[in-house]
């Protein structure tokens, strides 16, 4: 007697094979992927790409929210350069970027060098120094900072104890910007953590060899530490520079929504906000936004070009 094995009955979809079936499976997988991505795609198109395209069109129009846009070509851009307050906003922003960004990175690197050494309570110190960055440039921090730097407040009283009678920084057009610089420097936790990660990757053998050759601490820092962490330094410089150009919340709150006094904190985004939502000049504000984008893109391109001269990558790591 010959035994015949039962042959399983396959579904039509299981019996099909070949290129046609593979294409159908690929289409079903792609459809499932797009369905999962659809919330992000909808948000990107409606909240990012769409407004960007609209603002690019409005930049060449006269539009005030109450009338339909009228094409004016490059008039918004030419009027921008003739506006003294626009030039003032560029000056204030550049001053903030040039002063605040290097100070923040220097403090972050200095603290990272201290925390990179093994010591008791290291985790507690790292958390304490990182805590201000978790708070961020929120409205509550702006109000606290405004109270600290007002006339006869804590900072003013402390400086008077050392014989420095500077008065309230918030009310002084020449000093109010430095209160914003102090705020951004105080929140150095994020670049500090990145510097710490870079310092941990430096081989200890390099320091040991340098010590044998008689190199001191400064020499080891200049010849070993800086070149080895230069990619991390470049990343922090790039990131913090872009963030500095985008400052708005702290300047708006500290100056009591006036970007003053005497336009002392009239950073670029603050003037853009005034033009868009206080004066309802949406066309002019859109042109300002695209000028800011071009400026940040230019600075980014210059930084990427300059990295060839001072950023050192390991072989094959570029």
Automatic annotation (TrEMBL):
Species for this entry: Streptomyces jeddahensis
Region (Disordered) residue spans: 1-24
ABC transmembrane type-1 domain span: 90-303
CDD domains per UniProt: TM_PBP2
Protein's gene: araP_1
Descriptive protein name: L-arabinose transport system permease protein AraP
Transmembrane segments annotated in the record for this chain: 33-60, 96-116, 128-148, 175-199, 282-305
One term under GO cellular component: plasma membrane
GO terms (BP aspect): transmembrane transport
Subcellular location: Cell membrane
InterPro entries in the record: ABC_transporter_permease, MetI-like, MetI-like_sf
Keywords from the named record: Cell membrane, Membrane, Transmembrane, Transmembrane helix, Transport
Organism superkingdom: Bacteria
Its membrane topology: Multi-pass membrane protein
Family note: Belongs to the binding-protein-dependent transport system permease family.
SUPFAM superfamilies: MetI-like
